[in-house]
Amino acid sequence: MNRFVILSGCSGGGKSTLLAELQRRGHTVIEEAGRRVVQAETRAGGHALPWVDMMAFLRRALEMARHDHAHAPRDSRQWVFFDRSLIDIAAALQALSGDPVLPQVQSCRYHPRVFLAPPWPEIYRQDTERRHDLEAALTEFERLQHAYPSSGYTVSLLPKVSVAERADFVLSALAED
């Protein structure tokens, strides 16, 4: 059984808080490639930042996400949760470039159920690494709602409840699969 589970969805929808809770419960969490690219590029004074060169940013993030998938623990009895995935990045790159990028990542498979955080304007916040506004986050969410099913995944929307209840929801749904 594939134990690589994607948590994705709307930016600012509570994914990081949920992932921290799942990690606290003993599961492995693979941090979002995009955030790590922004952090590295900022430290290095680089240009592969979404607000400077989106194409370079997405290419770096895609490379990092491929590496994450290839090197994630495969022998664990616990779930391995990915904060976003290759699908997110490939869908964004495809939308930007018009090139068929999604088919290029199909060989890197995850658990068939993907959990998407829906838009949650009440908790959305911009920060130094998330500079886009809620409207851009909503556009991203709509793209993901199409990209995952078209890539063969079943989407489950995360309920807007406490972080503990969200974690219980995810683990319960996975136990049923």
Automatic annotation (TrEMBL):
Residues of the NadR/Ttd14 AAA domain: 5-166
Protein name: AAA family ATPase
Native organism: Castellaniella hirudinis
InterPro entries documented for this protein: NadR/Ttd14_AAA_dom (IPR038727), P-loop_NTPase (IPR027417)
Highest taxon of source: Bacteria
SUPFAM superfamilies: P-loop containing nucleoside triphosphate hydrolases (SSF52540)
